[in-house]
Specification:
The protein has about 325 residues and is mostly helical. It contains 13 helices and four strands. This is ABC transporter permease.
Length: about 325
């Protein structure tokens, strides 16, 4: 390729990136508009929506999912995804409960749970990045292992965590500046993640890997290291979420995280917010907005006394719409 062609190619790639940034900004602005409109409609339809208790309930409810969704966004940007995070979330909570009942200090139990969760992420990263296995099959297998481990430890029963130290109870029920601790943790993780995605050289390499893996290799990026770090980070966040959920409900149980359901929620939120299933695009802010939209709709269904069974149907419709928009957008960009 001669120098003139190379310059033209770089210019074309730059134009595509600039176009995608405009599309992403438009999508985030559109989601904010939709959130405001839905909020206004629910305020008119129900006096219970715009109350402190209800809004706080929405915030607490989405925080656990949101912590996982931050990691899922980074995984999608890298060109991968993870179906095992829901099971890793429940596994972490169960490990904490089982070790605490066995007499282990609660914080040491939390540390062990996080390490085991990260080992699940490490396994995903090695099998996908080093061996080259399909992410769907690999993370599905790890999902089964983590879920099975949770059931083996509990024999299918729930582990009560009512008699835990006050310091541990605080992370589930305490507040900081009037906000529940879990919400504060989510805001911090989302804020740091969004800043790092935009400014950090490390996460920029994740973006380059997802955009064009071959080009990333040629530019000297260690994609194996990137993939392993991404899956370990995602498992770390899933473990943190599992511990917070266990502390919040005072119980550790295998169904927490609902297996693939939590993965679907986090993927849905990321895709709605502008992340691409093809990798290379996505923002934490967009994911947070997508998550708020999903939870707002689900909350609306509840306060309007619409059966909870409609939630999955509505969420599925929203997801297929978001994926379709993502597909059509990329197809049009590729055609041009």
């Amino acid at each position: 390729m001669n120098s003139k062609a190379l310059v033209n190619n770089k210019s074309w790639n730059g134009s595509l990136k600039a176009l995608w940034k405009k599309i992403t900004l438009f999508r985030e602005t559109t989601i904010i508009f939709i959130i405001v409109v839905i909020g206004l409609i629910l305020t008119i339809l129900s006096p219970h929506f715009l109350t402190t208790d209800n809004l706080m309930s929405i915030a607490v409810g989405l925080s656990g999912d949101g912590i996982v969704a931050v990691g899922m966004t980074i995984a999608l940007v890298s060109g991968g995804f993870d179906l095992s995070v829901g099971s890793v979330t429940s596994f972490a909570g169960v490990i904490v409960g089982a070790l605490y009942l066995a007499g282990v200090n609660i914080w040491i139990a939390c540390l062990i749970a996080i390490v085991i969760g990260m080992l699940c992420g490490l396994a995903n990263g090695i099998f996908i990045g080093k061996i080259g296995l399909n992410p769907f099959i690999t993370t599905l297998a790890i999902m089964g292992i983590a879920r099975g481990g949770a059931y083996v430890l509990t024999q299918g029963y729930s582990i009560s965590l009512f008699n835990v130290p006050k310091s541990f109870a605080f992370i589930g029920h305490g507040t900081i500046l009037g906000l529940p601790f879990v919400v504060v943790v989510f805001i911090l993780i989302a804020s740091i993640g969004d800043f790092m995605m935009r400014k950090s050289e490390v996460l920029r390499k994740v973006l380059y890997t997802g955009s064009n893996e071959k080009a990333a290799v040629m530019s000297g990026i260690n994609i194996l290291k990137i993939k392993i770090c991404v899956y370990v980070l995602l498992a770390f966040l899933a473990s943190i979420a599992g511990i917070l959920v266990a502390a919040r409900f005072n119980v550790a149980t295998p169904p927490t995280g609902s297996g693939a359901e939590l993965s679907i929620i986090s993927i849905s939120a990321a895709v709605i917010g502008g992340a691409s299933l093809n990798g290379g695009e996505g923002t934490i802010l967009g994911t947070v907005l997508g998550l708020i939209l999903l939870n707002l709709i689900n909350n609306g269904l509840i306060i309007l006394n619409i059966p909870v069974y409609w939630q999955d149907l509505v969420n599925g419709i929203i997801l297929i719409a978001a994926v379709t928009i993502d597909f059509l957008t990329h197809r049009n960009i590729n055609k041009n």
